[in-house]
UniProtKB/TrEMBL annotation:
It is an enzyme of class 5 (isomerase). GO terms for molecular function: isochorismate synthase activity. Its EC number is 5.4.4.2. Belongs to the isochorismate synthase family. This is isochorismate synthase. Pfam families: Chorismate_bind (PF00425). The keyword Isomerase applies. It comes from the Bacteria. Residues 116-373 form the Chorismate-utilising enzyme C-terminal domain. Gene3D superfamilies: Anthranilate synthase (3.60.120.10). The keyword Isomerase applies. It catalyses: chorismate = isochorismate.
C-alpha cells in the first residue's frame, strides 16, 4: 500500500498563493498546481503517433521565445480520435497542499446511486461477446445526473474540489474548466505516468472490492482479492499491456510479479507499482499516451473493446476515463485517469463510474461496484444537490 509517487516537488514555475479561480487545478501529494490563461490547444492524438512530441516542441519553443516557464495542462479524452483540450501557459503557480479537515461536508441523506437495468443488460451482452472469443475484457460505465441546489455553480465547484481534497487521501484531485463552459472535477486514484528527470512510475489498478461499514477490512480484502482468479486475471491484462506499451520507450522496467492492495475512500483495489527510466526525449505526455487507454478503462484487445464500449454505451465518453494532468518543457509531469469524477454543465452535474467485465463477471456484482464508485463524489456532494 505504498504511495506510487515519484517526487512531490513543484516544477520550476513560480510558487504563490492560489486564489481558487484558476482554469485548471491539480492537487497531488504535497502540492497543488493552478493554471490559467495562455493558449488552448486541441490536438487529436489518435491521428499521429508524433503528435505528443510536436506539442512538447511547441511548448519548448514558446518558453525560449518568451523567457518564461511554460506548463501544458488539461484533459485528453478516452477516445483518442476526439480532440483534447490542453492549455499552454506561463500563468501557473504551485502551492503547498494542506488538508482542510472534512472540507465542510454536512450531515444529511445522500442520494442513492440509481438502478440501471441497461447497465446490467450491457454486462450480460459483454459476457456473451467474451464467451464468443471476440474480446477478453471490456470496461463498461454508467452515469447519474442531478441538479445543483445553489445557483452559484462556481462556488459549488470550489466546495466540491475542497471536499474531495480533504478526503481523497492519495488521490489526484482535479478541477478543469473547459472553454465550452463545462467543468470536470474528480479524485483519481490511478496514475498513468508520473515522470521526474526521466524516472517513470505508473500505478494501474484493476480487480476491485467495495468498501463499506461492516465490510471487509484490509486483511480480508487482501485475502479475497489476492485469491480471486477473476480479479488477478483482470489485473494481469493491465500489467501486460503496460509492459508492452512502455517497453519501447523505457529501460530498467520493473514490473512486480504480484499486485498489492491499494485503498481509496470507497474501494479496495489490486495495484501494481511499475517503474522504469524513459529515454531522455520522452515526456510524461508521450509516456501517458503510449499507455492510454489501458485495459483498466477500455479492455483487451483494445480495438474490439473500444468498439464494444461505443456500441453498448451508445455515445462518446468525452473525458471520462481519459487523462488529466500536466507536463513541463523538460518532459516532467504527471497524468492520471479521469475517474471518480463528474462533469458540470449549467446547473446539472453528471457522475461517472465503470467496472471491468471479464469471464466470470456477474451483472449484479458489477452494478454494485459502480454504485460504490459513485460514492466518492456523491459523499462530497452532500448538501450541494
Amino acid at each position: 500500500m505504498n504511495s506510487p509517487l515519484l517526487d512531490e516537488r513543484p516544477t520550476s514555475t513560480a510558487t504563490a498563493p492560489a486564489d481558487g479561480n484558476a482554469d485548471f487545478a491539480f492537487s497531488s501529494g504535497r502540492w497543488t498546481l493552478e493554471a490559467s490563461g495562455g493558449e488552448v490547444l486541441r490536438p487529436v492524438f489518435g491521428r499521429s503517433p508524433g503528435a505528443a512530441r510536436e506539442v512538447i516542441h511547441d511548448l519548448q519553443e514558446r518558453e525560449r521565445a518568451t523567457g518564461r516557464t511554460q506548463v501544458l495542462c488539461g484533459m485528453i479524452p478516452f477516445d483518442l480520435s476526439e480532440p483534447a483540450e490542453l492549455r499552454m501557459t506561463d500563468d501557473a503557480v504551485w502551492t503547498p497542499h494542506v488538508a482542510s479537515g472534512s472540507g465542510d461536508v454536512v450531515p444529511g441523506q445522500l442520494p442513492a446511486a440509481p438502478e440501471s437495468e441497461r447497465f446490467r443488460h450491457n454486462v450480460s451482452e459483454a459476457l456473451d461477446r467474451i464467451g464468443s472469443g471476440s474480446l477478453e475484457k471490456v470496461v463498461l460505465s454508467r452515469t447519474m445526473t442531478m441538479r445543483l441546489k445553489d445557483a452559484d455553480r462556481r462556488g459549488a465547484e470550489e466546495r466540491l474540489f475542497d471536499r474531495l481534497s480533504a478526503v481523497g487521501g492519495r488521490a489526484d484531485v482535479f478541477r478543469v474548466r473547459l472553454e465550452d463552459g463545462t467543468s470536470w472535477i474528480g479524485a483519481s486514484p490511478e496514475i498513468i505516468a508520473d515522470v521526474n528527470d526521466s524516472r517513470f512510475v505508473t500505478h494501474p489498478l484493476a480487480g476491485s472490492l467495495g468498501r463499506s461499514p461492516g465490510g471487509p477490512d484490509a486483511e480480508d480484502a487482501t485475502r479475497l482479492l489476492s485469491s480471486s482468479a477473476k480479479d488477478l486475471h483482470e489485473h494481469g491484462f493491465v500489467t501486460r499491456h503496460i509492459r508492452e506499451s512502455i517497453g519501447r520507450l523505457a529501460s530498467e522496467l520493473q514490473v512486480p510479479v504480484r499486485p498489492q492492495l491499494f485503498v481509496t475512500d470507497s474501494m479496495w483495489h489490486l495495484g501494481t507499482r511499475i517503474t522504469g527510466r524513459l529515454a531522455p526525449e520522452v515526456s510524461a505526455l508521450e509516456a501517458a499516451l503510449a499507455i492510454h487507454p489501458t485495459p483498466a478503462v477500455g479492455g483487451t484487445p483494445v480495438g474490439p473493446a473500444v468498439r464494444t464500449i461505443l456500441d453498448l454505451e451508445g455515445g462518446s465518453r468525452s473525458y471520462y476515463s481519459g487523462l488529466v494532468g500536466w507536463t513541463d518543457s523538460s518532459g516532467n509531469g504527471r497524468w492520471s485517469l479521469a475517474l471518480r469524477c463528474a462533469s458540470l454543465a449549467g446547473q446539472f452535474i453528471t457522475l461517472y463510474a465503470g467496472a471491468g467485465i471479464v469471464a466470470g463477471s456477474d451483472p449484479e456484482s458489477e452494478h454494485a461496484e459502480t454504485a460504490s464508485k459513485f460514492g466518492t463524489v456523491l459523499r462530497a456532494l452532500n448538501g450541494l444537490v
